[in-house]
Amino acid sequence: MAEKREYRMEELARLAGITVRTLRFYRERKLIPPPRREGRIAWYDDHHLARLRTITALLERGHTLNGIAELAEAFDHGRDVGDLLGVGGPTEEEPVHLTPEELADHYAGEATPENLAAAMELGYLGTDGEEIVHISRRLLDVSSALVHEGIPLAEVLRAAQQVRTHADALADLFTDLVLRHTSAQDLPRLRPLARSVVEAELSLALDRRMRKP
Length: 213
Description:
Elements: E1 6-7, H1 9-16, H2 20-28, E2 36-38, E3 41-45, H3 46-60, H4 65-76, H5 81-85, E4 96-98, H6 100-106, H7 113-122, E5 125-128, E6 131-134, H8 137-148, H9 153-181, H10 187-211
Antiparallel strand pairs: 1-3, 2-3, 4-6, 5-6
Helix pairs in contact: 1-3, 4-7, 7-9, 9-10
Protein name: MerR family transcriptional regulator
Domain HTH merR-type: 6-74
Pfam families: MerR_1
């Protein structure tokens, strides 16, 4: 395991490519966590360095300091990745590790604390040190595509909550059907059939909806 590195203020500022004055300003604005104190000496570590580099990247992408502060606050109080993934993690979906600036880019400036809180409440997002984890690459790609089509992220997340409710009901229906006639051991093997039915029925439902005047 790599030894944990610590830096004094001047070294940290140099490594982050900022001035000591800027570092103090960021600390006063609570954009970075407080340092470890040893007497009158403040010690910073690699997490502080990663956060400073993230701030620089977000500023270069046009984000404001107020927006960055809100983003930092949301992630500092977010759900841990262990709570997000649970024991064993998802069986089919691929989790995605992101930096804060990558997440902000995915959502075109709509990664507000309110939207992040909603995504965390849904179980879409968790934190892993300085990184964010999204539970599903497919859901990340779809939600990002909808936002870039002009649909507000808040509305995408509200729709996702409704989809979650219907998906839970469908999962219960399929599970009950299988358990009435087979056993729990058959559920993993028959799982793809449930997904195929849902995809086909949704496709047909969209056809019907688009034919409506």
